[in-house]
Amino acid sequence: MSAPGAALLTRQPVAGGGGRGLGAQLLLAVVSGGYAVGAALGWGSEELAKIMGDFGLSTAGLLAAVSCYHYARAIDRRERPAWLMFAFSSLMGALGNGVWGWYEVLLDQKVPEPSLADFAFLCFAPPAIVGLLVLAKRPVTRAGWVCLALDSWLIGGSLLTLSWSLALANAARTAQSGAPGSVPRAALSLAYPLLDIALVSMVLVLHFRRSANNRSAINTAIAALALTVLSDALFTSPLLNTTYRSGEILDAGWFAGSLLLAYAPWAAGRRPEPLPRPVPPRADRPHSRPITGSLPALTPYLAAAVCTLGILYNVVDGRKVDRMVVFTGCTVVLALVVRQGIMLLDNIALTQELAQKENHFRSLVQGSSDVIMIAAPTGTLRYVSPAAAGVYGREAEELVGTELAALIHPDDLGRVVHEVRRFLAAPPAEEPTTRIECRFKSGGGEWLNVESTVNRHQGGLILNSRDVTERVRLQAQLQHSAEHDPLTDLPNRALFTRRVRQALTGRRAGDHSTAVLFIDLDGFKAVNDTIGHQAGDELLIEAARRLQDAVRAGDTAARLGGDEFAALILGDGSRDRSAREYQVHDIADRLRTTLSQPYRIAGSEVRVAASIGVAFADPGITPSDLMRNADLAMYRAKAGGKDRVELYAPQMQAEVVRKAELAGKLRTALHEGEFALLHQPVVSLADGEITGVAAQARWRSAQGILFTPAEFLRVAEHSEGGPGGGADPSRGAELGRWLLEEAVAEAAERHLAGHDVPVVVRMTAQRLLDHSVPSGSVEALLGRHGLPSGGLVLELAASDPRVPFDELERRLTALHRLGVRIALDGFGSGYAAISALRRLPVDLLKLDRGLVEGVVESARLHKITAGLLRIANDLGMQSVADGVDLPEQVMALRAMGCTHGQGMAFSGPLDEYRLRRALVRGTFPVPGGTAQPALAGGSSGGSMVIRRGSNNETPVPPA
User: Fold this and answer.
1) Average pLDDT over residues 225-229
2) Alpha helices, DSSP H only, in 368-456?
3) 889-906 burial string, b = 16+ CB within 10 Å, else e?
4) Where is composition skewed (Polar residues) in this entry (predicted)?
């Protein structure tokens, strides 16, 4: 990790707390230094020296006792006894110095030996030792306790040997001299250093609990006790003991030790400790850490070495070696031997345990199906588990020493290096592991997909890798299946939408020459209905192949569902809109031609056509809007005759909106009862007699005006649910049911009034065969209203090729048996008319309005109409001409043999009142006068009932 990165991860101390801690340290140094300077100069007078040497030390000790006691009340209960012991120890020191000052300053006497001050000074070390034991880390095993005792004696015995040689031997000889008071003085002389030796041994041997909160406090307290022990050692030495006086430089050590102990509890609180830096492992760090951690463990051996060297020095120098020194030295050596034996046994047990664990982990590594690799900081593989042979097809020995980068796919190497660098720079506590997936070169040369869990290891990496090639392949298959059509393997709607979105964003965002093509196969349903769905699937597969081959390499061909396909034609950056439209239109037309070629399916030749809508990516358009525009253009192509290409224009969307509004108005009109029923008379062209009435729906506007909204009727009758259909098909069915029921009900009322003219109701074949309508609804309607046989004529448009003729034939035959007459609407248009004449029970033929409008002006239409009328008469059917608006048309149609007419030449649609007036009259004037039928078959059986009336009444004007 870089130095700036490590610095960012280090918690900075609080500014205010850091300043206060530094101020306290400076104050401590200034006070201690001032005391030392005063002691060195003798304080200016002997009296002041005694005061500062006695009561000054007592004040410092009392300050330390109060500070430790206050700190003990505010910390964790586990450490509280230790600081209470330090407070008691400091209090004993303050008491001893106070007693010493009582004698020297207040009583001006020499301090007696022994005195209460000696008792207080002797009570300083034991509480401090107890406090250190409380803070120490306790051994967890019996051998640990034994080693702790041996270490204590090694250090204590070595210090005792050294102290005995320097000073304690003289004190012992003084006690043996038998002089008065020699024994108490000798005991005091021996007690002080022995307690100090015990205290020093505890400091050097014990390992202390140092958390982040009390590390500085414990270290400072230990330093204060060590400084106090050092001053005691100098006091008991022969050089200073005989010449010591209160207020000398030696008192500065005790004073500084007491102040340092008083400051110790607040060392951590005043200056927050920084968090340990998460420094990444280095190759040389494992060699330096054991040396640092072994220094405390080497302390007993160093002490024993000092003891041995001291004895050897006395022997070599020819000095007499005291028996106490020899005895102590021998016990130190014996303790060292015992300790070494315990450590040897402990090392043997640890070695065996380590060997067992190593064998255990070796078995785990070698038996694992994952490949475990250790890479050096340079990237060289230092270890590879045997599983590499089964996973990578390469022996582990072959991979050891290989550069890891040489085994990773070049396209993945940059990403892997970036992830490894990021991982090594992250704090280990926050991110202990990472996961990397890349392609790894196998022994056979192919690339395997490998997933690796990466951990840090001595500056390098440990990689736990596994082969996930099958999983990646399965994921790719699932992804492909989710984005492609299962039948044709072309992109599906989801993938096509995403690619359209990609084409409209990024670097292509400003290219408005991108186009989307929506393609629908005309006549595909007939293929399914005639030769089966299996053949239809084969046709779709072949059509998809043709479409895929026809588009360019960078374009996208997709199947949206059913027989709908789409193509995304990427733009070329052209700014000439007209040229680009011509180019894309040419591509679309070639696609249309290709898809319209005959298909060879199941040994038969099948033909379908293609209707294509094209939409361009205008500025600011969204993918959904672009695809909607192409869909609208495709429906316009189908409505315009199919097998054609249509470019999207804004008015197409406006037309959809308008149709949606009309559908909404239709819904409202149906619910609010705003539709009215009118009837247009059907007149005999021979004598003008009214032979029937055609029921027609009209919408009543808010102003009460009735008018014919052709778009309303078209929305109602031709709703298909798509963009070109307009309204909900159920609304058209609802309007048809309303029209049929109202027409039958009013016809029944007219029948009761004596007007026996049939009512003609137009109905589509799809609605008649609608399975959602209850079977027998027409029959039930006739029975409910009591309309007699022959009173209803169903005007049927049977030119839709999607209508199943067999089912339609059965339905019409059943109605025909009940006396319902069938009229074939639109005769003369559509290819299904001849089939309808051949198979359906048709009674009346209704000529298409397009034939009637041009029957006078066009000789060609005249001949066609004459031929159709001749067929009708030969079949014994009556004929009705729709849209007869001019007298010339009446005379021409009558001359060709047409039996009935309907149009403005006689009357427009009438309301019920006007209709009954017309029925009372019974006839309308016929242009050219009354004439006999031109063909005998025109009046054959099945003619409409004719009611004659006065010819002198004025025609009723249309509503």
Assistant:
1) 75
2) 388-391, 396-399, 410-425
3) bbbbbbebbbbbbbbebb
4) 949-959
3-state secondary structure of 697: strand
pLDDT bin (cut points 50, 70, 90) of residue 807 is confident
Residues of the chain with CATH 3.30.70.270: 488-648
pLDDT tens across 895-908, in order?
A: 999 999 999 999 99
Burial class (CB in 10 A: 0-12, 13-18, 19+), 594: middle
With a cut of 50, say whether residue 858 has pLDDT above it.
yes
- Name which of 104-108, 618-622, 689-693, 930-934 the model is least confident about: 930-934
Q: What is the pLDDT of residues 152-207, one digit of tens each?
A: 676 666 666 655 555 554 555 554 444 444 445 545 555 556 556 555 655 655 55
What are the residue ranges of CATH 3.30.450.20 in the chain? 368-473
In CATH terms, 368-473 corresponds, of 3.40.50.300, 3.40.50.720, 3.40.50.11270, 3.30.450.20, to 3.30.450.20
Whose tokens are 């029923």? That residue is 677
Coil, helix or strand for 751? helix
Q: What is the largest CA-CA distance in the chain?
A: 179
Closest CA to 433 of 402, 419, 449, 454: 454
Using CA atoms, how far apart are residues 702 and 85, in angstroms rounded to an integer?
104
DSSP 8-state class, residue 272: P
- How far is it, in rounded angstroms, from Cα 808 to Cα 271? 99
471-511 tens-digit pLDDT: 888 988 998 899 999 999 999 999 999 999 988 886 666 66
pTM higher than the cut 0.85: no
Distances (CA, A) of 651 to 513, 595, 634, 637, 656: 20, 28, 14, 14, 9
Evaluate whether 909 touches 696 at the Cβ level (below 8 Å): yes
User: Shortest CA distance to 648 belongs to which of 616, 603, 694?
Assistant: 616
Question: For the domain bounded by 24-174+183-270+296-334, which CATH number is listed?
Answer: 1.20.1070
How far CA 137 is from CA of 203, 205, 506, in Å, comes to 12, 11, 65
Closest to 220 measured CA to CA, from 64, 335, 97: 64
For helices 182-205 and 125-135, angle between their N-to-C axes, nearest 10 degrees: 20
Q: Where in the chain is the domain with CATH 1.20.1070?
A: 24-174+183-270+296-334
Q: Could you tell me if 449 and 469 are in contact, meaning their C-beta atoms sit under 8 angstroms apart? A: yes
Confirm or reject CATH 3.20.20.450 for domain 676-691+746-920, answering yes or no: yes
Structure tokens at 330: 């021998």
Beta strand 759-764 pairing with 690-700: parallel
Identify whether the C-beta of residue 889 lies closer than 8 Å to the C-beta of residue 852. Answer: yes
> Which residues make up the CATH 3.20.20.450 domain(s) of the chain?
676-691+746-920
pLDDT bracket for residue 779 (50, 70, 90): confident
CA proximity to 130, closest of 160, 88, 190: 88
Q: Does domain 488-648 have CATH number 3.30.70.270?
A: yes
Q: Which residues pair with 879 in a beta bridge?
A: 845
Q: Are strands 609-616 and 821-827 parallel, antiparallel or unpaired?
A: unpaired
